[in-house]
Amino acid sequence: MTEQKYEIPEKDEMRDDIGQRSLRGEMYTDLVSLLKVLNQYEEPIPFEYALYRAYHDYDYSLSPDADDYSAVKDKHKTRLDKAGRWDEEVVGDVVGRIPTAEVWVEYVSSELGYETVTEQNLNEVQKACVRIGDERKDEYYKACGREFQERILEDADSILDDSGTIGEFIDEVLGDFARLAAEEFPSRVNAGSQGGKSSAGSANEELARRLLLAAGLTEGESEETVRNFTTETEDDSDVIVFGNDDQTMYVEVKSTSIRERVRRALMGEGNYWSLFGFFGNAEKVRSEVLEGNLQGEPWSEQSAVAYVPPEVVSKVEDIDEKEDDGNEVYKLENEDGLLYLRANNVFAQDMVQFTQTGELTDIDPGHEDQYI
């Protein structure tokens, strides 16, 4: 047992902190049950064990023994996300799953001491999302070991009564631990691995979204609302930014590795495509800009602008100087005569300009230096 970490709030207080108009009684009871469980542990506990303890020790409405366990897990995730919105420290106390992108980026930003994502800290936060996510995988495995040990030792008295000697007791406990680990651990490892992969892209999209919001742009889901951009898209883009007239900027958000074609729709008059990513390999970026790959044409023929980390932009300049192919990707201009390859830090200021004028900002090579 440990000193209580979370003071249980009143229902209305929790509702306001989460940012909801209402909070059902059952949901509030479930959230309180989770907080009571977390107050019992000094170290993080597995996602599955939070469900187990909340149900068996308190008034949690979700049962780990339900026939439709998949649906239970989804509802359990929703409750943990709500608890994470109430206090982001909850995210660090339950391992084995990545929360929604909004909650995850909020948690990571808080861990770094930032209140929001800005052009100055963008790439630091993105790297931390990956690093902390990897660290949580290791912590999850350790937490599972602690859980299995605790669950077995709960029956220590009965095991000891049935054992003839201390040696037999130890053998039985170790056997039960091995059996429990063999039954539950493999599926947990697989679920955690898949969850991490599926959440990476969502986190990057959330970073782009927060960058636009921090720059003063307004998000909206429908045409009836006053909006500068939306993340509710029905095509291959992840973000759509609206220009001052009829121009539209379709933005594809990518992660750190280059595996996919950049865009799948043709640019037309008033319609522009851009790439916003966190690619780390400057040689591959340069090659994609010039040549593309088997899945698509060169970036420079498919998009109006590409945003990559500032260090990568700088390294592309070095490669240009070393290669004897007559190409200067670092200084490459798009059809409008504007710099094509840009530091992802300037993405938001470019989009602000686009909403006001329908054009990108006119920046020069070397702009990336201020962000390195």
Automatic annotation (TrEMBL):
Name used for this protein in its record: Uncharacterized protein
Organism: Natrinema versiforme
